[in-house]
């Protein structure tokens, strides 16, 4: 039982991100809303009133009923057939195998090759040993620096008011020094270009941080940088120097471009997109803090224990004005564990955690999170060794590598491509979050649910790249009016998201498709509200299941367009699936399986409510 309980704790929500269980008993995270005395008495085991309300509103468990045994058996059979079909089209004996074999590489599982043809994940996978060494080196150097710093500047006692300032100073100097070394290794002398952009952005909010021109200039500058980085391909020194010094210096510029071979990642502008989000976060947090100070806002929360407050308070409460300085800014924007891929953390939250280490970064929780990451990597390895769907999709349009495949086989190419996209993003995000947790910084978890455990387009985007979603809500969605104008805001949001990912028509098409597919869900929620079905909960659940089937199909189509095989590839897939009566029969069976899966998803969420948890996704 001990082993089973340990495994369950590794895959628990509290291990994934203690924010998710913040209102429930046994959470590792401080409550969002500390329980206050009421006529009903104190909350049980520290459980919040919000958690108690969820438990009260939840429905009785349906697990074990004949209806749900039918769903479990039906979905179980479907899953087995799905994996078998993906494996069958990846066999050497399959007639299309020679058309994509050239994209496969030798694998470490005996008798199997590995589909390492996705360049984005291949770069991460091939460098896992180096990244692990960097994480370990960062950990050891931080410990050594802390000892040296404490000898030069003795650490104040825990109850001293100077302790938080000592913490943030000690951390920021190391963060900047390590970042300079780290970025030089990554981008060579292009670090100079990065520092120039960072300095220009910092100056926007330096002179008059409460001016209305700060947000205007910040957004204009940040969007301009995204376009300029793409257009000028990272500003080569061999082109910049002659322009600066009257036609001279092309040779020196060429040498600077190739110093250290341009670094491990010469195209620094590709990974800089995520840095732009931190530039905006710093300036906007600085602007709002200055506005509060200028307006003599007396609503600043009195934090009795600032070392143990909720994430919401860390984000909403402005940092001390002295924290909005250049060194703290550099430490935040260039923070090495989160520099390449995030997760995104706001400046206010980051500055607070520099002053007050969080209890959620305890060694036990970090080790369990690391084991969970390891299980994700091993899962990806099994998928890449046995399901060659990425190679098939890459050659489907050019080499016709899905010719003669059945509708079921074609659909599995698309389905498992989406799962690999999910895993290839989840694994790097969790690695870099693990690195931050080891360093006592707790950013949000980016992926809350398995890709197949989503039936709502709106909820899906709350759980996919969650830290980016929360950044969008704080800095775009709410400032533009929030829920008062949802459709217009979604057009703005997904246009920005698409252009932020890549300045391409394919991503722009994806962004607008997402908005188009969300509209039916918004309309149905208004027309078929839960209150109208009071007393007819079973009918409402079945009706919601039908809507969920449509949502899943539309979400799969949009994401295949944006992140996998593009518009032409999706068109070919649809033509292949619906090009025969067999295809229509398959679609009917697939929709039946999706309906049963949706019912299981509903009950999973009801089970979370019975535990006092609402992930809102």
Please describe what this structure looks like.
The radius of gyration is 26 Å and the shape is globular. Among the domains are: 120-157 and 165-295 and 305-361, no CATH class; 448-616, no CATH class. The protein has a two-stranded antiparallel sheet. The model is unreliable at 33-44 (pLDDT under 50). Helix content is 65%, strand content 1%. With 617 residues, the chain is mostly helical. It has helices spanning 2-10, 13-16, 49-57, 66-88, 97-100, 119-126, 128-152, 163-187, 191-206, 213-231, 237-244, 250-257, 268-294, 311-316, 326-333, 336-339, 347-355, 363-386, 389-396, 407-438, 457-463, 466-477, 486-501, 505-527, 537-563, 566-577, 581-610, and strands at residues 105-106, 113-114. The two termini are 31 Å apart.
Give a summary of the structure in a few sentences.
The protein is mostly helical. It has helices spanning 2-10, 13-16, 49-57, 66-88, 97-100, 119-126, 128-152, 163-187, 191-206, 213-231, 237-244, 250-257, 268-294, 311-316, 326-333, 336-339, 347-355, 363-386, 389-396, 407-438, 457-463, 466-477, 486-501, 505-527, 537-563, 566-577, 581-610; strands at 105-106, 113-114. Strand 1 and strand 2 (113-114) form a beta hairpin.
Summarize the SSE layout with pairings.
Elements: H1 2-10, H2 13-16, H3 49-57, H4 66-88, H5 97-100, E1 105-106, E2 113-114, H6 119-126, H7 128-152, H8 163-187, H9 191-206, H10 213-231, H11 237-244, H12 250-257, H13 268-294, H14 311-316, H15 326-333, H16 336-339, H17 347-355, H18 363-386, H19 389-396, H20 407-438, H21 457-463, H22 466-477, H23 486-501, H24 505-527, H25 537-563, H26 566-577, H27 581-610
Antiparallel strand pairs: 1-2
GO molecular function, one term: O-acyltransferase activity
InterPro entries: MB_O-acyltransferase, MBOAT_fam
Family: Belongs to the membrane-bound acyltransferase family.
